[in-house]
Write a structure and sequence with these properties.
Elements (H helix, E strand, L loop, with lengths): L2 H7 L6 H13 L4 H10 L6 H21 L8 E10 L2 E10 L4 E7 L4 H26 L1
Antiparallel strand pairs: 1-2, 2-3
């Protein structure tokens, strides 16, 4: 298990599978914390919605860092898409970094159009991915 995740989980008293299942449902599906609480009660696990929220606040930043480190390499070629989408009745600008295969590398959603800020946000993810690809190639050599 990841060191940072084990530090976060050290004082939490529920089984790891229960905590990760609740946090996954909260992030992956459009469910409220009370819905997740009810679903867990149906499965015989008594947990409060505020506890699930605390788990999400503690576990998600650690998982985000761990997943970002394991993202697949992008390579040197990528482009940036810009479009606007309707989110909760308001128009927002969506910037995406897209690789050669059309897969999204990273994205930024903003209220105002700002191409410079989007480039500044998306560049580090590209360089992080390229550096990890170079490290992988050097290890294989």
């Amino acid at each position: 298990m990841n060191e940072a995740l084990s530090k976060v989980l050290k004082r939490l008293h529920y089984p790891l599978e229960v905590m990760l299942t609740c946090v996954r449902w909260y992030v992956a599906y459009p469910l409220s914390l009370r819905h997740i609480e009810e679903m867990m009660h149906e499965r015989g696990v008594c947990v409060d919605h505020t506890t699930i929220h605390r788990w999400a606040l503690k576990i998600l930043p650690v998982l985000a860092v761990a997943f970002r480190r394991r993202k697949r390499p992008v390579g040197g070629s990528w482009r940036m898409d810009e479009t606007y989408v309707l989110v909760a009745g308001q128009w927002k600008y969506l910037y995406r970094a897209v690789d050669r295969d059309g897969d999204t590398v990273d994205f930024l959603l903003t209220a105002k159009r700002d191409l410079v800020a989007a480039r500044r946000f998306l560049e580090p993810s590209r360089y992080t991915q390229v550096r990890s690809a170079e490290r992988t190639r050097h290890r294989e050599s």
